[in-house]
Design goal:
The protein has 99 residues and is an alpha+beta fold. The chain has 2 domains: 1-61, Winged helix-like DNA-binding domain superfamily/Winged helix DNA-binding domain (Arc Repressor Mutant, subunit A), CATH 1.10.10.10; 64-99. The protein is 65% helix and 14% strand. The chain is built from 5 helices and 3 strands. The protein has a 3-stranded antiparallel beta sheet. Strand 2 (41-46) and strand 3 form a beta hairpin.
Length: 99
C-alpha cells in the first residue's frame, strides 16, 4: 500500500497514514524504515518548524510499481470471490466448533 500511495508522488507521514487507512503508527513507521533500509524509499527532512518529513520512492522503488499494479488489479478483480471463499470457510469453521 505504501508503494501504491508513493507511486503518485512524495507524501508526508500523516498523508500516508490517512490514505492507507487502518494502519497503526507503529506498523507504518516499521514499514517505512524497512523500505528505506532496502533502498525503496527515501526520507527527506525539511528544515521547517516543526520539521516536515516527506517520503518518496527511489528509482529502485519505482521499479516495483508495475509488478504491484498487476497484483492490485488481480486483487480488485477477484475480491468478491475471495470474500465468498472466506465466508464459506468461516461458516464451516464455526460449525466444526459448535458440534
Amino acid at each position: 500500500m505504501v508503494v501504491c500511495v508513493l507511486a503518485t508522488g512524495p507524501a508526508h507521514y500523516g498523508e500516508l497514514q490517512r490514505r492507507i487507512g487502518g494502519i497503526s503508527h507503529k506498523m507504518l513507521t516499521q514499514t517505512l524504515r524497512s523500505m528505506e533500509r532496502d533502498g525503496l524509499v527515501v526520507r527527506t527532512v525539511h528544515a521547517t518548524r516543526p520539521a516536515r518529513v516527506e517520503y518518496a520512492l527511489t528509482p529502485l522503488g519505482e521499479t516495483i510499481v508495475g509488478p504491484l499494479s498487476g497484483i492490485l488489479a488481480w486483487a480488485e478483480a477477484h475480491f468478491p470471490e475471495v470474500e465468498e471463499s472466506r465466508a464459506g470457510f468461516d461458516a464451516g469453521y464455526r460449525e466444526g466448533f459448535s458440534s
